[in-house]
Fold each of these.
Amino acid sequence: MNIYDVSKKAGVSIATVSRVLNGNNNVSEKTRQRVLSVMDELGYTPNVFARGLGLNTMKTIGIMCTDSSDVYLANAVYYLEQELRANDYDSILCCTGTRNSTKKKYMELLISKRVDGIILVGSKFLDTHMEENAYIIDAAKSLPIMLVNCHLDGENIYSAQCDDETAVFSVTDSLIKSGRNKIVYLYTSTSQSGLKKLSGYEKALDLNHIPARTEFMQLCHKDILRAKEYLNSLHARGISFDAVVTSDDSLAVGALKFAYENHIRVPDELNIVGYNDSILARCTEPELTSIDSKVEALCSTTVNTLMGVFAEKHVPSKTLIQAELIVRGTTRL
Amino acid sequence: MNIYDVSKKAGVSIATVSRVLNGNNNVSEKTRQRVLSVMDELGYTPNVFARGLGLNTMKTIGIMCTDSSDVYLANAVYYLEQELRANDYDSILCCTGTRNSTKKKYMELLISKRVDGIILVGSKFLDTHMEENAYIIDAAKSLPIMLVNCHLDGENIYSAQCDDETAVFSVTDSLIKSGRNKIVYLYTSTSQSGLKKLSGYEKALDLNHIPARTEFMQLCHKDILRAKEYLNSLHARGISFDAVVTSDDSLAVGALKFAYENHIRVPDELNIVGYNDSILARCTEPELTSIDSKVEALCSTTVNTLMGVFAEKHVPSKTLIQAELIVRGTTRL
DNA sequence: AAAGTAAATGTAAGCGCTTACATTTATTAT
DNA sequence: ATAATAAATGTAAGCGCTTACATTTACTTT
């Protein structure tokens, strides 16, 4: 069944049917109603391919993330999908892993699929070597690119980020103000946002005239055990600390396990702060104080920006959203 | 740039270019190479719409789940996407929520998008009222439907499930054999698989001549606090129990929180078993004994089955995969 | 070398839509 | 009532592919 069947049954030309389909208002209300009811009667749905051929749009957005099974990214993918669908857009999900060549391949794949825009979720999409990011700038020549949680300057490239630097700065500063001065910072990545967070930590120390110690700033796999092990190694070397700030809840869980193993009381002897306020934060005992990085707001901004671009409105190329500290049982601030 | 540009530059007809594109072997090797190199040179990628119009396939699978931010479903979506891509298929993700009318709407949307098949992930897609499942049977008339973690008999409907009944039976039986006889079972849903799990619990009691107590079989929201509260209410009523088996890790976390609050030692006084072996199981102290429901195997079976259907091979309409008990600190078996 | 067959290539007709442009019909101004 | 204008509808030419069928070229067989 196709547009001809509908046009025949409604006694109009296919052009009129097409106009009804596309909400063109050069159709009399009477005709529109008749066509609509015929479509309904016939159970007609337009063929997306034929439509795409004419319109050259699929009403589909490509979503790329390194790994959608990651708790944080899974949430982001969920919210993005919801927002997109509310705007009548579909999404195609691509989990790229961390290899740059694979990211590039998927990017090309999405472009060849004629998606209308691409959302890159997560800070892992930006390399510190600019030439590795060329494929993004390249892609932006053919469609709008939205970056979630990282930023890259360029024509047709937009970003929405959480103000990670301020978030880590604030919580570190609060810890210091409430008496802590040996604060460990564990972070999972040296990505743009990873470094921002680190810089927030350093600025807070700086402001309070506390010297930064290299053994207190540790890069660590996003893994409960790795975090625990690192803290164990500090402890074994007789290096004491009174707070652990992390760039991900999983590391904070590891810190809590360290405390448990070594009979260190939380929060009396050790304060712990997570990041992202994921479900993990509510699993532990005591529950984690964590920085809510506002995924939902980030995702809705992301989609709104993209819709703005499609509507050829003026949209900000960079949005910064403030995080919120959720205080639970692992801190005494 | 289109197929004409390629054909012109390669000095062949568009039919030959199309043949190269589709791996048709009525093309001489020399010509194929020439065409291929021209494509490469021009950076040509075929237009998916035009292609779809002719082939009437998109090499795309629709994935429907109630909520991809759920830890378990997020994992499933991830593995499915990986497997599909390995088979050169894209996926369109739809998070439907739990309302039946919405599920139906998304199903129709996917069909109108001309996807080649639809995967329904999670037991929430089957209603106990058969007439509510009519839309699935209906959809199966136009494309193959794969159910992950539920089963429905019907033409063009296939399923892959974890053997939940056996899994819960085994662990309950083990708990009894190692001395527990007041075992609470908390479950999140009365879906097909939810009831299977419950039945596994009941069978284990039955086999060991332990009478089933209604207050020990409790339906409970998939929520840490709800599980804790229910156990608290039992405890307050002076009803004692020595083990809690659950249908989801989050409930087990709740059980652990209950024990903590009431100074009940785990596993000495109370054994706790989770389900799905998610990241949550490794966050708590002690860590959760949990049933690994084998998402990855389930997802690869799912995609393989679908590919078998497309290749018109004979495939089993129902696959059952055995779970595995991962023993950690919350049990003494 | 001619005839017969197989392999390689080309021609052209769709696939189901959108839309510029042409035509008809309805509305308004004179 | 008529001309001028606006609104509604129709006609037909694409969009970029696939593929049945026709044709040409290359290889066998006798």
Note: Residues 3-55 of chain A form a domain with the 434 Repressor (Amino-terminal Domain) fold (CATH 1.10.260.40).
Amino acid sequence: MRQLRQRAQFVRAARGSKANGRFFVLQAAACVEPDAGIGYTVTKRVGNAPERNRIKRRLRAAVRQSTDLFRPNTDYVLIGRRPALYAQFDELLEALGQMVQRLNPAIPTR
RNA sequence: CCAGUUGACCGGGUGGCCGCUCCCGCUUGCGGGGGAGGAAAGUCCGGGCUCCACGAAAACACGGUGCCGGAUAAAGUCCGGCGGGGGCGACCCCAGGGAAAGUGCCACAGAAAGCAAACUACCCGGUUUCGGCCGGGAAAAGGUGAAAGGGUGCGGUAAGAGCGCACCGCGGGCCCGGCAACGGGACUGGCAGGGUAAACCCCACCGGGAGCAAGACCAAAUAGGGACCGCACGGAGGCAACUCCACUCGCGUUUUCGGAGCAGCGGUCCGGGUUGGUUGCACCAGGCGUUCAGCGAUGGACGUCGCAGAUGAAUGGCCACCGCGUCGCACGUUUCGGCGUGCGGCCCUACAGAACCCGGCUUACAGGUCAACUGGCACU
């Protein structure tokens, strides 16, 4: 999957559709690229640097196992929250699947 | 064996599945290799490097450092020593220049806090209504305080006092040892000179500023700027810059006077800036080993190794087993402190994530290992 790297992409996704969960917040918006893009945000409020890194890595691993769920032509942003640090990996996967499927129909197309 | 001191170190391992980033190779999507820390942290010092400023030097101001000697690129770091303080000891701690250049401050308590004075009590004389009062002497005793004008003892005296003497302390010059800080010795003075410089200050030494978001390079879209060319464009003068006249607009009741404008369109090129990309960017005060010099910090010689380079930021995610720790239960053992075995639970790990690079300092850290030394107890 394509990784989001530029600030403008994150801002555009933040203005799109949104879904809240216990482990993370999911944002998504349509984009010009043909494939699906994914970005991760973990703010400083969540924890110190090693904890934030660990949350991002677990989210990345969960996304890699659920590639089929993501629609093409769309940018997704995952905002990690602290429970994602301690949760069972299965729970994380399940929550991700539910939220993506719930959010997909709500994303406006270009 | 118990208690302790100092120094050094580790800070999970193996396997499987799925991934990230950099480098190299070629058959261009595969193969091989590298990939977090002792503090990567705080950003407190010192450098390298980059840009800016600057003729040089000195002085002043400001900031920093502060026993002596050495190490180092340098430092507020390190090593060795000196002095003071603490501990039975190994050892630890010290913001450790100057209070006789000057100024300031010393709360509360206390009679008195800096210049010598005297509250209670003491001694002598006088007086008395026998409670005291007056004059003089003295600074030993009590009490206050962080600190009360050297300390202890003897002599001395009306009572006392460095008033005299001995020892200790202090000051002074002299001699000896040491590169020095400083130490030792005899002599002498005769107690004077309270503390505070993390109060101002004085003395000595050091110091341009900002930082890799430094700095260098490349470049799309949009808006605007400049130059040139073409078309177009009132007149006159001038090589040209431009000047004058006419025209239009504004202010004004009007005139005079004053002010502004005199173009536009198209093309090419240039420079600036936002965003993005490339570079800086990883082989250097380098690590390890041996050896030599040195008490040591460290330095020399020789050999050997190649050691992260991300940029919404890689270096991992999940599972299994092992190991470690801890808690509970059962059994055995015991010098009643524990120890061993088995089963189960928890954590499967503390502090913490490179961001230009080094040398330090400081702070955080579950658990564990090793070495040297000290004080006990027991045994030989």
Note: Residues 49-64 of chain A form the longest helix (16 residues).
